[in-house]
Amino acid sequence: MAANSPPFTPNEPHDCGDEILRVEHLTAWHPVNRHIKRVNDISFSLHRGEILGIAGLVGAGRTEAVQCLFGVWPGRWEGKVFIDGQPVAIHHCQQAIAHGIAMVPEDRKKDGIVPVMAVGKNITLAALSQFTGRLSSLDDAGEQHCIQPIHPAAENQNVIA
């Protein structure tokens, strides 16, 4: 805590929005050592307007839990996932994206980009089908229209709106 921290203010009552995501009894097993649980029976819900943070030490299962929800966990997992109160099955990332789920990987420079492509092209990869024509040719103008640079950020990385 810094010496000039703002004074503590008590929580004020507020209305929770509708439940948009609920996860029940998520359990994931190691992809090779299948008897080892990497995530053990977690449940949570997220309401409109809330921000959900998943915290824990290295090896606690944070990344594995998110990978399950995004459909990229390489091992077996089970649990129930509800979006807007409806049960959904997510077995691969295309299903997650179709349900409005996105994932920012922990090591975004290693797992989150194609380094030889421009920032804007990387951003539109997940929605590439929106920028292809009938014969699967890329609509560069449509893709470029969705990419709006704001300003260069620190470390020569770009911020895109």
Topology:
Layout: E1 19-29, E2 37-47, H1 62-70, E3 77-83, E4 86-88, H2 93-98, H3 108-111, H4 119-124, H5 140-146, E5 149-152, E6 158-160
Keywords: ATP-binding, Cell membrane, Hydrolase, Membrane, Nucleotide-binding, Repeat, Sugar transport, Translocase, Transport
Domain ABC transporter: 39-126
Organism: Raoultella planticola (Klebsiella planticola)
**Major sheet description:** 4 strands, antiparallel
Beta-strand fraction estimate = 15-25%
Adjacency order of strands in the biggest sheet: 2-1-3-4
N-to-C terminal Cα separation, in Å?
Answer: 32 Å
CATH architecture of the largest domain: 3-Layer(aba) Sandwich
Which blocks of ≥5 consecutive residues have pLDDT under 50? Answer: none
Specify the CATH homologous superfamily of the largest domain. Answer: P-loop containing nucleotide triphosphate hydrolases
Give the averaged pLDDT, no decimals: 80
The helix content is 10-25%
Order of helices and strands: EEHEEHHHHEE
Reading off the top of the CATH hierarchy, the class of the largest domain is best stated as Alpha Beta
User: Helix/strand-derived class?
Assistant: alpha+beta
Tally of helical segments: 5
Question: How many independent structural domains?
Answer: 2
By DSSP, the count of extended strands is: 6
Shape descriptor reads globular
Radius of gyration: 19 Å
Examine the coordinates and then state which fold CATH places here, giving the name of the CATH topology of the largest domain: Rossmann fold
